[in-house]
Give the backbone structure.
Amino acid sequence: MPRGAGGTGPGAVRVLIALALVVGTLVPAAAPEPPSELSTDQRRQLAAGEVIVRDALPPGASASARGGTAFALVRASPERVWHVLVDYPGHSRYYPRVVGAEVVESNERQVLVRYQVAIGPFSFNFHMSKYPDPKRRRIEWHLADGRSNGLFRENTGYWQVDETNRVSLVTYAIAVRTLMPAFLTVGAERDSLTETITAMRKLAEEGDGAARRPQ
């Protein structure tokens, strides 16, 4: 739950939205096929290592949600990327301002994760229900029902990892609503998409993600 009233201005709100979202030159011949809806220029940018962000929200998002979908190539095997994504206690390594993540419940179909967030003197917890599908290399999530979720009113999305020649095409999509007025958060979601997928990519490419075992 929040402590104190500091850190709730526009700058702090942009950092808060970045939570929801809970490098190197790539060889073009080894790159997965980019999504067909991307333009020729966007495909070139993707092959050059840039992150492409589109306005498309994940399935099931509400009409008032804000967010988008990001694409990036990761010079690491899909298995390595997958290990980074399902290492839930390690999410603080690439989700901004997440200082703790704990698996509360887990079974074959679902994982309940409690995140702790800190922005200066302001902090709170929120809970995510995650649904990993190892065969598809896809993780979908939404806010956990009946749990404390701080300022979040909606937080849905997915990670998708696709493979070609042991190079990974990673897709990251989010849809977010908070108690904050929309004008305070304009642009924050797109910034967080880029920041999160870039940090995750660096972790996977450096090999640190393979050192931890999924919980």
